Amino acid sequence: MIYDNLKIFFQNVRKNALIVNIILETHCHFNIILIQEPSWSIICSIPSSTCSEEEVLVGAPHHPNWLSFTRPSVTQLDFLRVLAYINICLSSFHFSLHRDIINHKDILLISFFTNNICSFIMNIYSNTFYSALKYLKNTEVNINNLLIMTGNFNIRDWLWDPSFLYHSSISDDLFIIADLFNLDLSLPTNPIPTRYSDTMGESDSVIDLMFLHSRSSELNNHMIHLEW
C-alpha cells in the first residue's frame, strides 16, 4: 500500500517564493509537500467578463514534477495560506481537493484512492485568532479515514514544547478536533524547535504539529528538519 512508504514534507515558508522553489526542486524523494503561508504572485493579466479593465491571474510557484492543489486564485496576494503539492508519480491515485466538505481559506482537505479506499490528508494554517480551529470545532464535518492533519497551529504548549511552561486552553480544542477525526498527536523523533525567532530575547518555539491516524502501523512517526 502507499501508506507504507508515504513521505510528507510540510513547512511554513513565510511567503518566501525562493524557499518554495528550492523545496520543489530538491525534495522529489517526498510524495506530498504541504505549505503554509505560501508566496503568491501575479502570473499574467487576463480579460475580464465583468468590466473593461483586465484582471490579474494570481498563482504560486509551479514545477513540472509536482501537481499543485489550492483554492481558486484571488487578487489579494497574501489571502490564501495553505497549499499542497503532489508528486506526479502519484497521479494515478486521483488526488482531489474537497471544498464541498471543508470550505475555509486556511484549510486544505485532499483525498486520494488506494485499492478503492478513499483516504484524506489535511493541511492547516491557524492564525493568531485560531479561526481555522474554531471552524473545525463548530462545523459538523464527518470525515472517514483522515490519515494526517498537519500544519502551523501557532499554539505554544508544554505538551509538545518542553521549553514552554504553560498549557493553552486552545490546545484542548485542538485535541477535541483530533479525537473527532480519530487522530493522535505525533511527537517527533528529534524534538527540536519548529520556529526560530528573529527577535532578540524571544525564544524559539514548537508551533508546527502533526496528527496521525490512531493506531496506524504504517504512519507512525515524523522528524523535524532544520529550518532553512
What can be said about this structure in brief?
By secondary structure, the protein is an alpha+beta fold. It is built from 3 helices and 12 strands.
General description of the model:
It is globular, with a radius of gyration of 18 Å. With 228 residues, it is of the alpha+beta class. It has one domain: Deoxyribonuclease I, Chain A (4-Layer Sandwich). The two termini are 32 Å apart. It contains 3 helices and 12 strands. It has helices at 17-26, 131-138, 169-180, and strands spanning 8-12, 32-36, 41-46, 55-59, 66-69, 82-87, 96-97, 107-114, 117-125, 146-152, 183-186, 208-213. A 6-stranded mixed β-sheet has the order 7-8-9-10-12-11, covered by helices on one side.
Question: What are the defining features of this structure?
Answer:
about 230 residues, alpha+beta, Deoxyribonuclease I, Chain A, six-stranded mixed β-sheet, four-stranded mixed β-sheet, 3 helices, about 15% helix
Say how many strands there are.
Answer: 12
Give the strand content.
25-35%
Neighbour order of strands in the largest sheet:
7-8-9-10-12-11
CATH superfamily: Endonuclease/exonuclease/phosphatase
At the fold tier of CATH, the topology name is: Deoxyribonuclease I, Chain A
Any guess at the CATH architecture? 4-Layer Sandwich
* CATH class placement: Alpha Beta
Mean pLDDT: 84
Major sheet: size, sense and barrel closure? 6 strands, mixed
Helix content: 10-25%
Secondary-structure topology with pairs:
Blueprint: E1 8-12, H1 17-26, E2 32-36, E3 41-46, E4 55-59, E5 66-69, E6 82-87, E7 96-97, E8 107-114, E9 117-125, H2 131-138, E10 146-152, H3 169-180, E11 183-186, E12 208-213
Parallel strand pairs: 1-2, 9-10
Antiparallel strand pairs: 2-6, 3-4, 5-6, 7-8, 8-9, 10-12, 11-12
